[in-house]
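Schema walk-through. Below, the input block comes first and the output block second. Nothing else is stored per chain. Lengths vary across the set, and this one has 543 residues.
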Amino acid sequence: MKLGGFFIFLFVFAFQAESQNAPVAEYIIQINPKVGLVVFKEKLGLPIILEEVDKAFGIYSFKTDIAAEKLKLFLNKTGCVWAFQKNHTVASRGVLPNDPLLSQQKYLSIIKAADVWPYLHNGLSKKEDTLVVAIVDSGMDTMHPDLLPNRWINRQEIPHNQIDDDSNGYTDDYLGWNGGDTNSKTFTNVSFDGHGTAIAGIIGASGNNNMGISGINWNIKLMPVVCYGSKNNNGDIGVVRSLIYVYRMKQLYLRSGGKKGANIVVVNTSIGMDRTFAEEAPIWCALYDSLGAVGIISSAATSNSNISIDQFGDIPSTCASKFMIVVNSTDMQDVKANSGYSAKYIDMAAPGSRIYSTGLMQNLGGAGTYTDVSGTSFAAPQVAAAVALLYQSVCDTFWTMLKTNPDYALGLVKSWILTGTDALPSLIGQNASGGRLNMLNAWHNMDNWCRSFDRTYSDNQVLAASIAVYPNPVTAGQELMVEFQAQNDTRVEVSDMLGHVQTLEFESTGNNLLVQTTSLAPGNYFLLITTKNQRLVKKLQVY
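--- output ---
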């Protein structure tokens, strides 16, 4: 006994002497629970301190400076170790851009924007079509470095030549249009309020460019359309002209097969008139339906006054278009902020207090090129941005439907967003959904629809589909939980290491499968979840 102990001492001493300069690393092992920790330590014979991770699963951690390959050989000699690995650094899978002022954008975490960023597709649809967001407002500082890369450009137009090169009825509309003054100037004296520039930053400030902030869409194209005249002409006429320009550009895109015009998918209108009803502005209101007819959904801000829209009215809130989403606002505590309310005319809320976004370049020496803004004007563009982001990964079946039946297609988009809101007590009776924007829920609603109606969708995911399985390892006979929404043709199987496949019985409970493992012997398997459209694989260990 003394001789054996002396031998182990010499072996360990030699091991340590050889690796004494190696860096200390942390490892995780899983031993056979039936063997037990005491027996394992005796067989191991190394002076390492094991920290319990989970006794029932036989999982422990330890630190050592012994080289990994030699350590692995020594562990294998015990015959007790099921698995051995280094303790790696685990990073969040939420995609965070490197924009230095991102931490100032508190609202992004509230609406779960980062959870959907893995599905961004460079501002393009899956068919590689450029997606455009029109902003009917006071204009945009198109030279702002965080907006410059994402400004929409009319490639069929030669700027400043006083010729309507693309024959769309608008001369020199290279960067958008000014419906207030009926010219091509998209940055005028009315733009100095910074209103439109802040809205543009929320929707599409260039993301992951190591500069400033990140828009909800990192690469979307932004089309500024000025609805205010430079000579204090702020009437309905400028708005009507602006909305018609958006309509015509999308119509031209469709008729030319994408060669002209712009693929506008959503328009933001953070403009309006308090205490006004739809019958007082029928021409303005009717244009939302015209936009819907060519496949454009509209996001509109309600009044900033804390009034009943049912009783006092608001434009565009009371414009009863099924192609419009009307938005009121919440604060950073996720409580309704000062804004209009109505369970009839207002659809949902989004954060509207202390929204950090792009400011005017002329303020570089004062407030800077970024600023805090508040109001429903800055809640609505978050919904517009959510629409644009969904369009970056929505399936081909939807695009076909958008062309053949825009009424139904845009209704789907609206339902994906509205049924995905987070219900908040302060919003009960304050808007139709009783909720605030949740981009992740909206994305999952879209994803589930596409999985049901598009056979090719699963093969063209932006990210590979994944499933969560637990417990894993599992005791034979123990019920296995799999996060997966069953379809009519779902099969659950396992394959052993020799390729022998057997079918497992399961029950479906909402978004989970309860799988029976009574037929499985201890060992390593591949768990196979198969439907007509997809096949998901997960390693499974049974003991």
